[in-house]
Amino acid sequence: MGERPFAEEDSLHEECGVFGVYGAPEAAARVALGLHALQHRGQEAAGIVSFEGNQCYAHRAIGLVGDNFNSADIIGRLKGDMAIGHNRYSTTGDAGLRNVQPLFGDFSFGGLAVAHNGNLTNAMTLRKELIARGCLFQSTSDTETIIHLIALSREQTVEKRLIDALKQVEGAYSLVVMARGQMIGVRDPFGVRPLVLGRLNDAYVLASETCGLDIIGAEYVRDVAAGEMVVISAEGMRSLHPFSPVPPRFCIFEYVYFARPDSVCENRNVYETRQAIGAELAHEAPAPGDVVVPVPDSGIPAALGYAKASGIPFDLGIIRNHYVGRTFIEPSDQVRHLGVKLKHNGNRAVLAGKRVVLVDDSIVRGTTSKKIVAMVREAGAAEVHMRIASPPTTHSCFYGVDTPTRDQLLAAQNDVAAMAKLIDADSLAFLSIGGLYRAVGEARRVANQPQFCDACFTGEYPIALTDAENTMTGSQKDLFLRVAEV
Ligand code: AMP
Fold this sequence. Notes:
It is a single chain. With 486 residues, the chain is an alpha+beta fold. Helix content is 29%, strand content 25%. It has 2 domains: 6-249, Glutamine Phosphoribosylpyrophosphate, subunit 1, domain 1, CATH 3.60.20; 269-461, Rossmann fold (3-Layer(aba) Sandwich), CATH 3.40.50. The strands form 7 sheets. The protein has a 7-stranded antiparallel sheet. The longest helix is centred in the middle third of the chain and has 15 residues, at 270-284. Adenosine monophosphate binds at residues 2, 4-5, 10-14, 257, 295, 298, 360-369, 401.
């Protein structure tokens, strides 16, 4: 699965992965495995909180799951048959340990832990109000707002307090919440971010993606629906719909890039969907090529789909080094500037003398494309025709994907011809928004409502951008600047 290509500033950042197990022995060990399968959703930090009776145990660490939850000692200390975990990539808040989730609070009713995938769009506004009311924030994470709203709620049960809190927040959230004797999964009314429900014998599992269920041998039951809250306890599972219903808007970029290809999101296998996207791209944007070459790994399924639909042979013209870790990339600017060469190399045997159709899933800043095109040329390609398996990314995401501001998005600043020049491709084409919807098998609008959140491609934001708007002045308004932490 594609990863952050080179250095942090070169691309969008992935969001987070959440996982929970209720009612299985050694729940924390299973959560660690689930988080490992969801590692592609966030590599910055990971945490697990477990419950045994009234007692909570927590371990949080910066780095990969496999590097931090690898000893029987650590896992053994996370006792109990219920546990939740989180993989973090910071979209809001700094990267310090205090922001590593699950966040935990000690309430009058006992401990409560929250793992959040998504991004709240009015967290800053609420935070200011809460601070004025005397709340002391421990982190800079938007998720902490939910903890304070739960604490202030006058409702009597955890479930009702959570509903009360969530009715005040705006934005995208898939949450796994744990309190004494219960685990709760909930998706925001638009269902922007994914969350699935599974069973492992008598136990219940909640996961961002089905690949997290597979790794522990859990059975996929269904997606938690947009706006649905599932409450799991000794009595079994209850499903509630506490919010006013709105037409769901699942993030279409999960299919383009985020989700792991072996996952099933909203009843679509991601790998098959990506191949369909590639096939649609081949129909819309044929290229005079001898070979279809993916930018690995994220471009592979779409390139396969393109090759099958166009009849042009598929081949691995770029080889990826899988051992490039973030720690190696980040520390020095010198290393950073080596950029793509650390991670990819042109395969001359495939590329020399060929007219290459190069397929990648998306262009964000254009850094990857520029370097990869140069690399393919260096390896002897006669022509390079770049094909992108999504529409131009023209707008920032405020719902959990840390995109750069519009001034840094290549497609927000240039038309396709100018982009082709900038990346030095003989031709460049993107999939149309209509083509993307055809590939996922939906009409773009039903009753005038887009069927997905496609704001990064269209600028049509389904959920209010309260924080962003509160901090904008007239001329900045269409830049949708990200909000600085207070
Ligand atoms: P850029 O180099 O800024 O144009 O980024 C585009 C590259 O980043 C493509 O190869 C994508 O596979 C990859 N990409 C797209 N979205 C993300 C994301 N959210 N996190 C990390 N990489 C991404």
